[in-house]
Amino acid sequence: MPVIIAPSLLSGDFACLGAEVRRMEQSGADWLHLDVMDGCFVPNLTFGAPVIAALRPHTALFFDVHLMIAQPERWLEDHRKAGADGITMHLEACDADALPGNLQRIRAAGARAALSIKPGTPARALFPYLEQLDMALVMTVEPGFGGQAFMADMLPKIKALRSEITRRGLKVQLQVDGGISESTIAAACAAGADSFVAGSAVFNAPDSAAAIAALRRAAEPAG
Ligand code: DX5
Ligand code: ZN
């Protein structure tokens, strides 16, 4: 599968989100990553379905919606209707018994289904759900804020997930989110990630197209 570079709008200028979204499309982003936070599951608040719906007409980019909210099952269809192409829930935010049904609901609504784990959650916690996932997300910072340092000690989790996905013959994408930059992306890629969220590394760069191109070059394995 080709490498996916997904700039996170969290690091964009919130005073002109439509223009920021168009700028990312023009800069060569593969997906747009949208961080939904509720001030409860994470200690920060951002935006939700109404803002995503308002952004939808501004771009054809794949909307990769990362729900950092408690009880995400309350909002799955709302985000799909708002224009989410992929919906990522946090494993820690869900009742384990309800998780398979919630993943099924995301797919039934027509979106790709993903599950994320925070740094303190082991890779094996995702194993029971792999068959139901289009993507798994390993957080490489504590979720809540952009601009934090990449946690290299998460690399073994990425490796463990990639090897289990391969062992089962599945086609699950493996995303990393947090602290991804030109200097950290290669290690995440070598560990088995193929989808990369980058907030500050893209939005804070003087030239976002050059930043995305540099991330892509650094991620792609040699040869
Ligand atoms: C953090 C968010 C990330 C954030 C990444 O909780 O999930 O998507 O925007 O920002 P950087 O790339 O700056 O670490
Ligand atoms: Zn995110």
In short:
The protein is of the alpha/beta class. It contains 8 helices and 8 strands. The chain has helices at residues 17-26, 49-55, 76-82, 99-108, 155-167, 185-191, 200-203, 208-219; strands spanning 4-7, 31-37, 62-68, 86-90, 112-117, 135-139, 173-177, 195-198.
Outline the secondary-structure elements.
Blueprint: E1 4-7, H1 17-26, E2 31-37, H2 49-55, E3 62-68, H3 76-82, E4 86-90, H4 99-108, E5 112-117, E6 135-139, H5 155-167, E7 173-177, H6 185-191, E8 195-198, H7 200-203, H8 208-219
Parallel strand pairs: 1-8, 2-3, 3-4, 4-5, 5-6, 6-7, 7-8
Helix pairs in contact: 2-3
Bound molecules: D-xylitol-5-phosphate and zinc ion.
